[in-house]
Amino acid sequence: xxxxxxxxxxxxxxxxxxxxxxxxxxxxxxxxxxxxxxxxxxxxxxxxxxxxxxxxxxxxxxxxxxxxxxxxxxxxxxxxxxxxxxxxxxxxxxxxxxxxxxxxxxxxxxxxxxxxxxxx
Length: 120
Description:
The chain is α+β, with helices and mostly antiparallel strands. 41% of the residues lie in helices and 25% in strands.
């Protein structure tokens, strides 16, 4: 039996240009299948996709084998011309976040401000 190694998760947040939104309003469409091919070609998987209102129009959670692949799809999406803004953040599991906190505590870093020292 082969154990499947989980891939890192990424959060992508996109805002459409006014022109792209006008086209979507004139011809409503779910863009999931359009972006699935390029994501899978780079070794990724779509976990969730949401449309939103506010600063971002679309929120996407993906898995990719590495940061380079996640950066590649971010560059491809951002260069297409339909997005006003696009950002990607690497996500950690709760266990990874706790491990990072423990490592930070053991790092030996000493804050130089009195308020930061008091917080520790």
